[in-house]
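Here is the promised in-class demo. Please do not try to memorize the tokens; focus on the logic of going from shape to residues.
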């Protein structure tokens, strides 16, 4: 059973060459040749580290990996017979990369010591060669597999420069949240540890929410979407991480686009708002009072969601007549996944359409507010929509009304059947072609 388990785990080894070499380790172990097993296991571990470092250099020009390889190469050139470069390699990888944590490094140090005892004619008090037992060897194999061999080549902490350059060059193709998530997770975050991801998050925070130079403005959107991916991947650690460095994360821009992006972020990560210093909170509140993004999404400074919904409705129906985009409505809907918020959202989209002041405005507002969300409308929301259409001739008398209202009629039929009270809204009734 043990041997089968080790064989199963070994199928996950990242590199083909490492996997081939490991079969020799497994064969020696299964045949009871435990000294040979340990000697070969150390060689496989060292080779695998070199392969991973070289991979980072070849594919991503990772500077830390390059420095480590240059250092160990120089040691080898200075003394070809010396094996000191092997443990030096492990120590440098632990110190300068995120491939090994402290426990994994200690396991490899112990493996190196066992390899030394097994490879050299070191005799015990009974003049016998050192011979590790089966349980010790199996533990060494398992620790090396799980702590090193099956892991992909993780990035070092120099990833941020490569990531930013790549995102800037690729932003035209990465034009949706889904594409960005797939790209950064496949190319980068599948090869990072949580600590590295949090450090990347820290760097992106400043670029997105603080700096206002031309380069930051050009790349703010894709950097923000990447920051969102990191926030989701590290949601459990994020508040504690920010609490540990409040002054840094509270150092945000005074106003404008960076703070608007921060409000957008906080709308989906509201717990972080309380982690900011008071000066940062004042800037966020000012954005919520004055900026359209703030007014749209700044629910987290309100007593409750119902208050925010009422504020949004009053703003939509005010003389300001804000113009919403599809992305804005999507963001409002994402604020909460409760049935209560869905009901409030339908009231908002209804209000947005039915306060239209011209046929043209009603045409455009209908397309933004109704078709995409009609499946969210329940019976109460449909009754409210029909009644408010009835009260605004710019909605029911426009030329495209009959065609547009087909989707409303379909939803009414789905929920009401023949029981909808069309007599209370005759103008709406004429547009949905209900026979007298």
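The designed amino acids, position by position:
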């Amino acid at each position: 059973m043990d041997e089968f388990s080790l064989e199963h785990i070994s199928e996950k080894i990242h590199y083909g060459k490492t996997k081939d070499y490991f079969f020799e380790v497994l064969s020696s172990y299964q045949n009871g040749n435990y000294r040979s097993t340990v000697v070969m296991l150390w060689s496989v571990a060292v080779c695998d580290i070199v392969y991973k470092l070289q991979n980072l250099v070849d594919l991503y020009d990772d500077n830390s990996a390059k420095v480590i390889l240059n250092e160990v190469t120089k040691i080898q050139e200075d003394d070809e017979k010396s094996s000191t470069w092997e443990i030096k390699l492990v120590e440098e990888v632990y110190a300068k990369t995120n491939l090994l944590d402290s426990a994994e490094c200690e396991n490899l140090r112990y493996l190196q010591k066992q390899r030394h005892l097994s490879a050299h004619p070191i005799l015990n008090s009974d003049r016998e060669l050192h011979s590790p037992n089966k349980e010790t060897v199996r533990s060494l194999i398992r620790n090396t597999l799980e702590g090193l061999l099956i892991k992909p080549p993780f990035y070092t902490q120099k990833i941020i420069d490569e990531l930013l350059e790549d995102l800037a060059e690729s932003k035209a193709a990465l034009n949706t949240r889904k594409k960005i998530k797939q790209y950064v997770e496949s190319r980068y975050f599948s090869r990072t540890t949580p600590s590295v991801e949090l450090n990347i998050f820290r760097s992106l925070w400043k670029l997105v929410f603080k700096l206002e130079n031309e380069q930051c403005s050009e790349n703010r959107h894709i950097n923000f979407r990447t920051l969102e991916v990191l926030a989701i991947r590290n949601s459990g650690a994020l508040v504690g991480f920010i609490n540990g460095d409040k002054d840094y994360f509270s150092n945000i821009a005074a106003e404008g686009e960076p703070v608007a992006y921060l409000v957008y972020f906080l709308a989906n990560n509201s717990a972080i708002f309380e982690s900011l210093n008071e000066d940062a909170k004042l800037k966020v509140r000012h954005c919520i009072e004055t900026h359209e993004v703030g007014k749209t999404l700044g629910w987290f400074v309100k007593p409750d969601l119902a208050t925010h919904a009422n504020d949004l409705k009053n703003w939509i129906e005010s003389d300001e007549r804000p113009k919403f985009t599809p992305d804005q409505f999507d963001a409002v809907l994402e604020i909460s996944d409760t049935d209560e918020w869905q009901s409030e959202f339908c009231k908002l989209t209804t209000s947005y359409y039915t306060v239209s002041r011209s046929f043209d405005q009603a045409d455009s507002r209908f397309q933004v507010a109704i078709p995409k969300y009609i499946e969210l409308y329940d019976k109460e929301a449909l009754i409210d929509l029909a009644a408010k259409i009835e009260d605004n001739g710019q909605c029911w008398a426009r030329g495209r009304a009959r065609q547009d209202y087909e989707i409303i009629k379909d939803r009414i039929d789905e929920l009401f059947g023949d029981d909808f009270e069309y007599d209370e809204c005759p103008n709406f009734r004429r547009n949905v072609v209900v026979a007298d």
